[in-house]
Amino acid sequence: MSSSATNVVPADVTGPDPAATSVVPADVTSASAAAQDVVRPAGAGETRTRSAAPLPAGDPAAVLRAADLVAARIAPHAAEHDRTGVFAPDNVDALWDAGLGALTLPAVLGGTGASLSTATEAVSRVAAADPATALVWVMHLLQLQLLGAPETAADWDPALRDELVADVLAGPALVNALRVEPDLGTPARGGVPATRAHRTTDAAGAVAWRVSGHKTFVTGSVGLRWLAVWAAAEDADGAPLAGPVLIRADSPGVEIRETWDHVGLRASASHDVLLHDVLVPGHHAVGLAAPGADSPVRRGALAAWATGLLTAVYVGVGRSALADLATHLRERVPSNLGAPLSTVPRLQAETGEVRAQLLVAETLVSDLARDADRGGAHADAAAERAGLVKTLATRAVVEAARRAAGAVGNAGLTLHHPLQRHLRDALCGPVHTPQDDTVLRQAGRTVLEAAPPAAPSIPVADRVATVDRPGSDRAAATPGSGVPRPSGGTADTARDRAGPGTQCPRAAPS
Q1: What are the pLDDT digits (tens) for 453-498?
Q2: Distance (Å, rounded) from C-alpha 92 to C-alpha 96?
Q3: Which of 57, 108, 202, 411 is the 20 to 30 Å CA partner of 256?
Q4: CB atoms closer than 10 angstroms to residue 258
C-alpha cells in the first residue's frame, strides 16, 4: 500500500489533544499498569495476551504513529481475510499491542481520551489497510465514548463500569451494541425490540434479568467480549422500558450463528447473535427508558462522534482506492503505448477526479471532527449536519472507488485486483445507519419547517421613488413579472420609459 494513503497528518491533530486530560485516579492507574501481560478470555473462551498499556493522553502524534504501525502490520493479510470472510483476531491484537484499544476511553478512566479529530484520522489510517478491522474497532470505540459522555455517564452502574474498563485496559476486550433484529430491522427507524429482558432473581436472591432474543449484523461478533443488547423490559410496576443490557459474550445461552456472507467488509464477522434465556445481573441494565427514546448516539455531541468515526472508515477505503489506482497506472506499460499508463492524459484526469472525490470526503470528516472538538455552538452545528456529512462523504468514496476501478478497466474488476475489493467495501457506506433517505428527509424537514426570514418592509412611496429614480433598478423586466432588471441609465432604461413598441436611438459610437 502506498505510504501516501496513510501518512498524511492533519495540522489540527499534531499538537496536544484538546479532549484528553491527564487526571487519572490512582486506582485506575495501578489497574492499567497491572493489566500488562494479563491473560483474559476473549469472546467465547479464547485467550490472548497483551504487553502494551494504552497510549497516554494528550499526544495525537503518538496515536497516529501507532495507527501507522498497525496499518503496516495488518495490510499484507487484508486481501486474504476478505477472500475467506474470516474474522482476524490477530488484527485486534495489533490494536492493543499498539496501545489503541482504549483510544476513546476517557483519560480519567485510564484511557487515551483522544479527540474526535485524532480518532477519525487514526481510524482512516487503519481502514486504509483493512476496513473490516477498522469497522470492528470503530464500534468498540463508540461504546467506550459512551462511558464518559455527559449524556450517558450517569446511566452506568459504577461496578459495571469498573468491570468493563478493567477488561478493556487488560485487553483485548471488544464491546459493541446489538440493536438490529431480523423482523424489526434497524431501530433507527423506530419500533420496539422483540428481544426481551425479563425481571427475575439470581441464586442469591438478587435482582437479575433473563434475556432472550435474536440480533443480526453484529459487527465483530465472534471477537466480542461484551454485548450491549438493546432489549425491551418492564420496571417494577410493569411500565414498559427499553435500552441496553450489558452481557458477557461467554455467558451461558449466548449463541453466535455465522450468517455473514457479504459483498463488502467481509472479515467484519457481522454474524447473528441469539440469546437463549441468558441470566444477567440486575445492574447490567444501562439507561433503560420509555420505549421510543432515540439512541444517545443519534443526538447531541455523540451524533458527531458516531458519524465521524464510521465515515472515517470509508475515507480510509477511498485512500486505498487512490493509492492502488496510482500504483496500477505507474506500473502498467502496454506494448502498444511503450510508456506507463500514468502518462496518458485521460487517465491523469480520471486520477484527478478520484482525488477530488476523496478530498470531499476527507474535508467533510475533518471539519466535522474539528467543530465537534471545539464544543459549544460549533459542536451543536457539527451534530446537526452529521448525517449529511455521512451521506455526502460515503457517496464521494463510492464515486472515487467506482472511477478508480473503471479507469483500470477489466483488470480492476478481477478478484485478484485490490480495486474491486475497495469498490465492494465502499458500497457498504451508504447502507450504514443513518441511511441516506432518513438523513435527507430530516434535512428537508428542517429547512421547510423553519420560519422564513422576514422580508424588509419598504413603504410604498419609497418603492415608487426608487423605481422612478433615473439609473435605479426597475422592479420588473415587464409589467407584473416580478423579475428585477439591472439598469445603468442606458438605452434599456430609456426603452422601458418610452413604453412598448417605441424605438430608442442607438448610442452614438464614441
Answers
A1: 777 766 666 555 555 555 544 444 444 444 444 444 444 444 444 4
A2: 7
A3: 202
A4: 13
Quick check: helix, strand or coil at residue 214?
strand
Beta carbons of 251 and 280 less than 8 angstroms apart: yes
| Cell of residue 373, nine digits | 472538538
Q: Which residues contact 210 (CB under 8 A, 6 or more apart)?
A: 197, 198, 200, 277, 278, 279, 280
DSSP-derived 3-state class of residue 254: strand
Q: How far is CA 371 from CA 9, 67, 295, 298, 308, in A?
A: 18, 23, 22, 17, 11
Which is nearest to 357 in space by CA: 414, 305, 317? 317
* Nearest residue to 367 via CA among 377, 356, 378: 378
Q: How confident is the model at residue 293 (pLDDT cuts 50, 70, 90)?
A: low
- Tell me the pLDDT tens digit for each residue of 382-419: 999 999 999 999 999 999 999 999 999 999 999 999 99
At 492 the three-state DSSP class reads: helix
What are the CA-CA distances from residue 186 to residues 143, 482, 486 (Å)?
18, 48, 54
| Residue 39 half-sphere exposure toward CB, CA atoms < 13 A | 4
The per-residue pLDDT of the chain, averaged, comes to: 83
Helices assigned H by DSSP within 130-271: 131-148, 158-170
DSSP β-bridge partners for residue 181: 185
d(CA 64, CA 79): 23
Provide the 3-class DSSP secondary structure of residue 284: helix
Tell me the three state secondary structure of residue 351: helix
Rounded to 5 degrees, φ, ψ at 433 are -70, 135
Residue 458's φ and ψ, nearest 5 degrees, are -115, 125
Supply the pLDDT for residue 37: 34
C-alpha cell at 120: 477519525
Burial of residue 239, with CB atoms counted within 10 A of its CB: 0-12 exposed, 13-18 middle, 19 or more buried: exposed
Digit-coded pLDDT (tens) for 241-266:
999 999 999 999 999 999 999 999 99
How far apart are the C-alpha atoms of 377 and 202, rounded to whole Å?
47
DSSP SS3 for 315: helix
Q: Which whole-number Å values give the CA distances from 182 to 177, 271, 305, in the listed order?
A: 15, 12, 27
Which residues contact residue 87 at a Cβ distance below 8 angstroms, ignoring those fewer than 6 apart?
Answer: 81, 220, 221, 222, 223, 267, 268, 269
Distance CA 251, CA 296 (A): 26
Side-chain-side CA neighbours of 245 within 13 Å: the count stands at 25
173 HSE (CA, 13 A, CB side): 26
Q: How many CB atoms lie within 10 A of CB 359?
A: 14
Q: Which grid coordinates are listed for 8?
A: 498524511
Q: Which is it for strands 240-248 and 271-281: parallel, antiparallel or unpaired?
A: unpaired
- Half-sphere exposure of 244 toward its Cβ, with a 13 Å CA cutoff? 26
